[in-house]
Amino acid sequence: MNKSDAIAFLEKSGCSPDVIDHCMAVAIYARELAACIIECSEKKGTRVEIDIDAVYIGALLHDIGRSKTHGLRHAVEGAEMAIGMGLDYKIVNIIERHIGGGIPGEEAVVIGLPEKDYIPVSIEEKLVAHADNLFSGSQLCTMEDTVSRLRRKKLDENIVRRIIDLGNEISLMQC
Asked: Positive or negative, the Cα torsion across 22, 25, 31, 33?
């Protein structure tokens, strides 16, 4: 799948122009972040392997489930749609695990998601989840602004902590 196919999939699925703009902004930033981490790791002499294409396409499609719902369940819906399209599980996992900085199975049940872990595992999943956390619509925000915004929304502090921890993990990979 390429950029045009991904955008066509978003449009055909019924995503709003605002969601598509958000996905494009997240994809561009996540791809830049991946390239930066690779370059930095090469300078340190320990190349980090990142599938930049998976990061970019996964980020473009991370909110495809918003064509069905705007709740946290959009990740589950989006993953199901991606499976239905026959997409690689690397992309499916990016879509499914980008929410809330990662949600463990026991918390997932409490908030109405199927019981499983929604915690980003691969570097590609982590990059997309982190990039998504830093955007409000199509506007890139600082981590401090992101945390303030989430706390104003009264988001559970465990989720806020996971978002901070994920941001710190990604920051340590950068130069």
From this structure: negative
Q: Which amino acid is at 91?
A: I
Grouping H, G, I as helix, E, B as strand and the rest as coil, residue 140 is strand
Number of Cβ atoms within 10 Å of the Cβ of 146: 20
17-44 and 157-173 helices cross at what angle (nearest 10)? 50
Global pTM?
Answer: 0.96
What tens digit of pLDDT does each residue of 135-155 get?
Answer: 999 999 999 999 999 999 998
Burial of 19 (0-12, 13-18, 19+ CB in 10 A): buried
Q: How far is Cα 78 from Cα 63, in angstroms, rounded to an integer?
A: 7
Rounded CA gap, 87 and 83, in Å? 6
Q: Where are the alpha helices (DSSP H) in the chain?
A: 3-13, 17-44, 52-61, 74-84, 89-96, 105-110, 123-133, 143-152, 157-173
**Does residue 15 surpass a pLDDT of 90?**
yes
pLDDT in tens, 104-119: 999 999 999 999 999 9
Identity of residue 107: E
Token pair in block for residue 172: 């340590």
Taking the C-alpha atoms of residue 34 and residue 76, their distance in angstroms, rounded to an integer, is 25
